[in-house]
Amino acid sequence: MAAAWSTGGNDNRGGVLKPTIGLFSLFALFLIGAGLYDPAVYVLGTYFNRPGNAVPLPDRPPPHNQAGARQQDLADLGLLLKYDRSFSGPDAYAFRRGIENLTEAAGGMSDAAFEMAVSRLVALAGNAHTTVHKKQRASRFGRAPVRFAWFAEGLYIVRATGPAERLIGRRVVAIDGRPVERALADLRPYLSGTAERARDDSPPLLDSPPLLQAVWPDTDGEHLAFGLDDGTTEQFAMLPPMTDPFGLRPIMAIAPGGYGPDWKAVLTEYPLSLREPDRVAFSAPLDAGGIYVRINASQDDARGPLADQLAAIAATKPPGGWRRMILDLRFNDGGDERKTVDFTRALPELLGDKGNLWILTGNATFSAAIITAARAKHFLTYRAHIVGEAVGDHEPFWTDGGPPLILRNARIAVGHAYFKQDWAKGCYDPSECNPLQFLYGVAAGDLTPEVQVGWSFADYAAGRDTVLEKALALAR
User: Fold this and answer.
1) N or C: which end of the chain has fewer CB within 10 A?
2) What backbone torsions phi and psi does residue 26 show, to the nearest 5 degrees?
């Protein structure tokens, strides 16, 4: 095992495993052999997530102009293949050639055009964790006075401010003269991962004139024109950059509050699934001995560690367990998968001998949330059912690259991936797979929803949740 952990992977995937990993793996396996499961998880987890694993950049003199700054940034970007193993050989070749082709033109690009060019190169990996971090863009580039969200019927305006308020709740059929499906297709090369992930990631690009101008040079980069379902077209000047109050958390695009009194939203009454959206863990009793549990992110919040919050929910279990549980992961775009390990392992006890689990997934269900869904399905076997939309990543996927690669001048943060995870079939190749999956990995099988259903905007506007109501009907 030690030799296996210290040998290299495929050079086309960006390098070899560090020998230190073998030592940590052996120590963790010793702990497992001694029956100390949780300490073993901690040992490996602290290694792979320790702050000292930052991507180092070589020293370079300060650039004399923008062209020099961009050349330095592209040289930094070239380091990605050293730390990311998700690129195939042909994709890695295309990435290197893309950097070469971009180097000469980059000095004359706008900041938005350069960021989108970098995004397109990074997205060549086809891996959702290998991506330009979307959460930084809201504070860097202006956006129109509207916020979009996808529903089963299409793209809708769910928030607006100023003169755009009168358009809240309208369906958008075109962006800058392009039908919305074509607009999404044009953005697809700049968005990492699956088509489902790209769809979920697209709204903050679809409402940003400078970022759209990088894709459509015929637009002015300052105004956004969009066609509505009644055949009319509206145009608005963009607002100055502002920090998104929710860090682009999926639930907050359609949930109450947050943007301040100057922004109006569609809803005044919210369904159960959107209540207390700032909580990472939320629960509510259901009739007939049931419980609804929503996990918005696999991370802690001001109320304490997520694992403790889930333990507190579990402690309310009635005698004999719940008859049904709705586990809502639609708005969970990941975090630290270790934080739900105890909760998922306890599900058979929490649901007793006859209880059933209904897992809600969507395009925003990502990374650690996929792991939570897989473990929940694994431990409940035939008593676990998935309802909703496809999750936002491939199976298997690559992740766990550590802190991002940050281009020194443009400050563009690029996520990278070093280990493979496969929660459908299991991942057991020590040259590629995350050692943590050896500790608590499962082979859950296909995570495609048994019942595929999206949230209807008509239901949303009425304060109802199409997906939750479908699951509740099935769970009776």
Assistant:
1) C
2) -60, -40
